Amino acid sequence: MKNHLIGALLGGCVLATAGTMAAAQDKVVLTMWHGHPEWKNAVEAILARYEEQNPNIDIQLEEIPGQSLIARLNTALAAGEAPDLFALRLGPAVAAAGEAGQIIDLTDKVDISGMTEAAQSAARYDGKIWSVPIFGSYTVGLYYHKEIFDENGVTPPANKTEFMEVCRKLQDSGVTPMIAPAQDGVIPAFLYMMMASSVLGADGFEEVRAGTRRLDDPDVVEAARFLQDIYPCFADGSLGTAYTEGKALFALEQGAMLEGGSADYAGFLQTNPNIDVGVVPFPAVDGGTPATVTGMQDTFSVNSESEHPDEAIAFIQWMIQPEAAQMVADTITLSNTVGVSPSDNPVMKEMVEASLSNDVRVFYEFPETGDVFAAIQENAASLFLGEITPEEFSAKLQAVVKPSGA
Amino acid sequence: MLAQSRQWDGRGGRRRRQSALARRYGHLLFVAPGFVFFIAFMVLPSLAGFAVSLTNWTGVGTDFSFVGLDNFVEALGSWPLYRAAWHNLIMFLAILVFQHTVGLFVAVQLHAKPRFMEVYRTILFLPVIISLVSTGFIWTLMLSPNIGVINALLKDLGLGFLARAWLSDPDLALATVIGVQCWNVLGWAIIIYLAGLQAIPEELLQAAEIDGATGWVRFRRVVFPLLSPSFTALTVLTFIGQFRVFDIVYVLTGPLGSPNFETDVLATLIYRSAFGGSSIASNDVRMSYAVALAVIVFVIMAIASTFLIRVLRRREISA
């Protein structure tokens, strides 16, 4: 009797295991890497919705923080061990992977007609679609703490003169005017892009790309001067402060203002659920128009060595449909899908409004101005410390522009 | 046993030849596994790396166009390489002096077996077993001018005038990074010198004492010369360690060696060239150039290390 019982139990176990294995074998497993651990909950919720609608798909997500992702992804690509879905940095990296056949040409496989013009433009390279910005786009402007502003009787500045006045008043009250984590040069690069955009506008930026306008033109040099002049408004130790630390400091109200993107707001909330901030376009160089800049969030490609390319492509297509796009807009950042806007997020709505007046694409997504970002990173600290003049700084930036008309 | 030997000897020349072969080359069998791994994971990748340095490969894609020695010429003519190497050199010299003075001093004190010696030794060695990345994060937080405990402590002690933006001040950042490293490597210096001190025969010290040598003379004339092997080991290890230091600098001051490249070292320069200065733009990424930099650093370090070992070994022999 005892032997029969053990036998029955063993048999049951075998059957159960076999059943589980069969179910597992039926499932298509897609591997996916992305570089935003801070979005973990939001992305997992989106993936769960997709898996719910597609029970045969299991997407295994791995979050690898930004810079480490690049090192690991490049190595994995070279070794032929990259995941099914991954995001390369937009620009030369995507182009090189496409030309090398490491990623699938999505041109006739994914319909991006429902996306914004900027997103379609970013997705296309030499007429082909190699990657799709499925996690929306980010618009960068100026965040400010409403309460700190109210307490000190100041309003969001619209130009350099007003900004310097707000800075002075806040400093007089013992408040740090601006958190600007400049350790890796990313924040100074965004500050400069917005300041220069306030002079150039979208049309002027196109002229820079074409070579009919220069970053060392006297009026554009004023953007570099603005960047240099606001350095005293930064928090102590800005040159050595990391981006993540800076965002946390701002969320914890250690400073009144922060240059930040739409995708940063979710992180602020995670650090301080009671945060009360507003967002405006970044103040203009005097005489210019306050500006925001917009770039594509991770643009995802499909590994050409994927065992399940059709399923991976279907997932990308689903991500840009209204349902997923709405989840992105509500929990991560602005959507790239036409007609989708944040449903209940006043800060993101302010960001959308901020971008209506003078929004320019980020410089580094274009081959002509791609190197400007790195040049700012390398030279901003010298500008802040007064080792180079705004004229010299601007000349260094112009030196790396490769005009399309040249 | 004798019979076995005779039987062995009596088997003729062929067997004896095998035995000679085995005696001469048998050790290779023991070396072979490690050697195979060394070839597979060190030599071949290094050769492949050198091949990559002769191309224009960006790190992504399959464009490996041959560019000859262009990357090397460009690297050797670029100021950032010399700036980074200068920072490595300063770090090496500062940490070397620290280890051979403070490290040796503490080791001598511990060698005298004070009360709670084991506790002291454990505490002093503790930083060594903490990963450099963790060390970097801990110190980043402690040194932060906004939330750090160091400045807060100074203020509480009435020394607020000493509070600084330790990692952001261009005049202080490199010294601060060196300070953090000193905290981290002190344990090594102590352990190596302590081992050297414990190996010195007591008779020599007693003989010197009988000859009337004072404590300082005994240390200078007997102990220190006999610590030469420890000195050599520590110097060479510090040289190699400081010229390839990466993780702690990366965590403390980022990929750009902030502020304004004041803490940029060879490894961060190579990393930045290979993977970019940020996760946002990729335009400045050139893997082949980074590999060329790494090859240059490898060659210079190999030459310098060999020279250093020879000079220090000669000193050991004469001592």
Stated plainly, the CATH topology of the largest domain in chain A is called D-Maltodextrin-Binding Protein, domain 2
Mean pLDDT metric of chain B: 87
Number of domains of chain B: 2
Number of helices of chain B: 14
What amount of the residues of chain A lies in strands? 5-15%
Which two chains have the most extensive interface, and how many residues on each?
A-B, 49 and 39 residues
Our Rg estimate of chain B from Cα atoms comes to 26 Å
CATH topology of the largest domain in chain B: MetI-like fold
Order of helices and strands of chain A: HEHEHEHHEEEHHEHHHEHEEEHHHEHH
Helix and strand element order of chain B: HHHHHHHHHHHHHH
The low-confidence runs of chain B, each spanning 5 or more residues with pLDDT under 50, are 1-8
N-end to C-end Cα span of chain A: 90 Å
**Structural category of chain A:** alpha/beta
Q: Which segments of chain A are poorly predicted (pLDDT under 50) over 5 or more consecutive residues?
A: none
- Major sheet description of chain A: 6 strands, mixed
In percent terms, what proportion of residues of chain B is strand? under 5%
Written description of the protein model:
The complex is a heterodimer of chains A (406) and B (319). Chain A folds into two domains: 27-132 and 298-331, D-Maltodextrin-Binding Protein, domain 2; 138-295 and 348-399, 3-Layer(aba) Sandwich (D-Maltodextrin-Binding Protein, domain 2). Chain A has 16 helices and twelve strands. Chain A has helices at residues 2-26, 40-53, 66-79, 92-99, 117-123, 146-151, 160-172, 186-210, 218-229, 243-251, 264-271, 309-319, 322-331, 346-354, 370-384, 390-399; strands spanning 28-34, 57-63, 85-88, 124-125, 128-129, 137-145, 178-179, 257-261, 277-280, 292-296, 299-302, 359-361. In chain A, strands 6, 7, 8, 9, 10 and 12 form a six-stranded mixed sheet that branches. Chain A has a two-stranded parallel sheet with strand order 1-2. A two-stranded antiparallel ribbon of chain A has the order 3-11. The longest helix of chain A has 25 residues, at 2-26. Chain B has 319 residues and is mostly helical. Chain B has two domains: 2-53, no CATH class; 79-318, MetI-like (MetI-like fold, Orthogonal Bundle), CATH 1.10.3720. Chain B has helices at residues 2-9, 13-53, 70-76, 79-111, 117-129, 132-143, 149-156, 173-198, 202-210, 215-226, 228-243, 247-253, 266-275, 287-318.
